Amino acid sequence: QVQLVESGGGLVQPGGSLRLSCVVSRSSFSSWPMAWYRQAPGKQRDLVAIITSGGSTNYADSVKDRFTISRDNAKNTVYLQMNSLKPEDTAVYYCNCVAWGTPYWGQGTQVTVSS
Q1: Averaged confidence pLDDT in the chain
Q2: For residues 36 and 50, what is the distance between their CA atoms, to the nearest angstrom?
Q3: Rounded to an integer, what distance in angstroms lies between the CA atom of residue 4 and that of residue 26?
Q4: CB within 8 Å of 54: residues ≥ 6 apart
Q5: Residues near 78 by Cβ (< 8 Å), separated by ≥ 6?
Q6: Angle ∠(101,102,104) on CA atoms, nearest 5
Q7: Contacts of residue 114, Cβ cutoff 8 Å, sequence gap at least 6
Q8: Residue range 62-91: average pLDDT?
Q9: Which residues contact 74 (CB under 8 A, 6 or more apart)?
Q10: Which residues contact 109 (CB under 8 A, 6 or more apart)?
Q11: Burial class (CB in 10 A: 0-12, 13-18, 19+), 5
Q12: How far apart are CA 20 and CA 79, in angstroms?
């Protein structure tokens, strides 16, 4: 079993920044690709960013040049630095990994961008 615990969400004004964190319960974390997804009310859950075990990254077009995904294998933690936030970034953000062929999700953290 793998547990993922997100933190760092909140209310921020347009143009502001937030950093999300996701702590993974297993030391095998370092060998797994990690991802952040988000789900706005009434919409499907979409991939925001992904980072491989080697540190390669990929982003949704809507967040390129504003969001940065990173990982600290010593802390079993993946981060999502979000800058220049827009109201359309408002969503519940979920951390994800696929371990031994099984997807695992965190409980989600709410990000609200509003003035």
Answers
A1: 95
A2: 6
A3: 9
A4: none
A5: 21, 22, 24, 34, 36, 51, 69, 70, 71, 72, 95
A6: 140
A7: 11, 13, 14, 87, 90
A8: 97
A9: none
A10: 6, 7, 8, 9, 20, 92, 93
A11: middle
A12: 6
Amino acid at 76: N
- The structure tokens 């921020």 sit at 12
Tell me the H-state helices in 1-115.
Answer: none
Q: Residue 35 and residue 113: Cα distance in Å, rounded?
A: 21
* In contact, 31 and 53? CB cutoff 8 Å: yes
- Rounded average pLDDT over 67-72: 97
Report the C-alpha gap between 65 and 60 in whole angstroms: 10
Q: In whole angstroms, give the CA distance from residue 111 to residue 38.
A: 9
Residue 94 identity: Y
Q: Give which of 36, 19, 9, 14 is closest to 84, Cα–Cα.
A: 14
pLDDT above 90 for 30: no
> CA-CA distance, 71 to 20, in Å (whole number)?
11
Instruction: Return the structure tokens found at 26.
Output: 């297993």
* 97 three-state secondary structure: strand
CB 32 within 8 A of CB 97: yes
